[in-house]
UniProtKB/TrEMBL annotation:
Biological processes per GO annotation: L-histidine biosynthetic process; methionine biosynthetic process; purine nucleotide biosynthetic process; tetrahydrofolate interconversion
Gene Ontology CC annotations of this record: cytosol
Domain Tetrahydrofolate dehydrogenase/cyclohydrolase NAD(P)-binding residue range list: 140-279
Protein name: Bifunctional protein FolD
Length: 287
């Protein structure tokens, strides 16, 4: 079997186009554009590229972009003051603080300082709790993008066996919650899991988010399974995911790296910002 390669880039472009239609409708009905504030502290090259891409995509979708680039020496109090200012700004519908933050800043303190109603990253404990308890809230962009790709591939997911490799607050845990919400039978595997290959072999859906280059091997994969690769590992051989590309010989469908999950992250961020603006302005949207 040779797997269908899931084109996340094309899917994300379609989603961004639908978000742009929603943003135009909000502008027509409410007289202002949805606004997204992105905060970068420091000069990590990859983060800087992601922040620039977010700003460009925001403007291209007909939204207002507010970019705040602060030096690496910025103190936690100064960052919290900026977040408080953005929380109070009526033109700002969404706030995102780019991660990782410099080591001297407590990431948790910053995330919890964001107004949950503007937390378009979905990282605030209030939004994590809403997801876990079936309430409406913001869902983290990367796992939400993964779910969209999986549903586009498989349709109804009820009863499928899913394995999520990785238990981070940003990807693994929300991904598991989303799959539970779709009535999958979900296993969350991590560094202490016994016989990981055997656990993965039982799965119809595998989401790998561990940051270990090409860790998932072809003989771990159930024939026909759908493989979603969240890994972005920079190696001497270039950008490599967590799933060995040779798994394409066994899988039914899989995402490439790059061009799979990555582009969905920014598209879902725009989608969350549109949702926030439509809630705050009382304008209905459909995407
Ligand atoms: N506050 C946040 N910080 C971080 C998030 C996040 O969702 N919120 N996610 C990642 C970085 N990220 C967005 O911020 C991001 C990662 C990857 C991509 C992407 O399109 N990747 C491309 C490859 C691009 C490359 O060469 O690096 C792909 O996979 O095709 C977009 C956004 C951590 N921080």
């Amino acid at each position: 079997m040779t797997a269908t390669m899931i084109d996340g880039k094309a899917f994300a472009a379609g989603l961004r186009a639908r978000v742009a239609e929603g943003a135009a409708r909000i502008f027509a009905e409410a007289g202002r554009r949805p606004g997204l504030a992105v905060v970068l502290v420091g000069d990590d090259p990859a983060s800087s590229v992601y922040v620039r891409s977010k700003g460009k995509a925001t403007v291209a979708a007909g939204m207002e972009s507010f970019e705040h680039r602060l030096p690496a020496s910025t103190g936690e109090a100064e960052l919290l003051a900026l977040v408080a200012q953005l929380n109070a700004d009526p033109a700002v519908d969404g706030i995102l603080v780019q991660l990782p933050l410099p080591k001297h800043i407590d990431e948790r303190a910053v995330i919890t300082s964001i107004d949950p109603e503007k937390d378009v990253d979905g990282f605030h404990p209030v939004n994590a709790g809403r997801l876990a308890t079936g309430l409406e809230g913001f869902v983290p962009c990367t796992p939400y993008g993964c779910l969209m790709l999986i549903k586009d591939q498989l349709g109804d997911l009820a009863g499928r066996d899913a394995v999520v490799i990785g238990r981070s607050n940003i990807v693994g845990k929300p991904m598991a919650q989303l799959l539970i919400r779709e009535s999958c039978t979900v296993t969350v595997a991590h560094s202490r899991t016994h016989d990981l290959p055997d656990v993965v072999r039982r799965a119809d859906i595998v989401v790998a988010a561990v940051g270990r280059p090409a860790m998932v091997k072809p003989d771990w994969v159930k024939p026909g399974a759908t493989l979603i690769d969240v890994g972005i590992n920079r190696t001497d051989a270039g950008l490599v995911g967590d799933i060995d590309p040779a798994c394409a010989e066994v899988a039914g469908a899989m995402t490439p790296v790059p061009g799979g999950v990555g582009p969905m992250t920014i598209a879902c961020l725009l989608r969350n910002t549109l949702v926030s603006a439509s809630r705050r302005l009382g304008v209905a949207y459909a995407i």
